[in-house]
Amino acid sequence: MKEEIIIAGFGGQGVLSMGKILAYSGLMQDKEVSWLPSYGPEMRGGTANVSVIISDSRISSPVLTRFDSAIVLNQPSLDKFEKAVKPGGVLLYDTNGITHHPTRKDIHIYTVDAAAKAYERDMVKTFNMIVLGAYLKICPVVDIDHVIAGLKKSIPERHHHLIPMNKTALDLGAELVVLQNKVQ
Length: 184
Fold this sequence. Notes:
This protein is α/β, with parallel strands linked by helices. Helices cover about 35% and strands about 30% of the residues. A hairpin with a 7-residue loop joins strand 2 (about 30-40) and strand 3.
């Protein structure tokens, strides 16, 4: 098994954290992992993306131009990375702020209304975990138990009281994901 993933959105949406949690989760399952962040000079509001590779075998390079899966959280990221998904791959996007929806017919396309649900349930800080839960429903590359352990590893101990809310967000994302286009 080898999954090459790009996660992209605005700074402040938890893009890099989502990638780090996936990478930690993979490590805890004895997988080979790579986590390669990229972001603009702005701390919040600029673009950010991270490529994550989770594999059963050694990873030769963390640099990718094509992806098995793309998780996109804004229109600029959708415009940039839709074409980088390998044929037969997965594109998952949050519908908030998307005005030009994906048009490819050779990839599996999923949506999740994560931003709207996070706001509605007063769980805005767990927006990225809703998206991650949706992704793991589609592509279970790591176990949820290891994601929880990855959360414990990646967030400061003073915030560990928020882990149950993050678990709820992961479960919610799994319920909210909707298939838009399935490749035959």
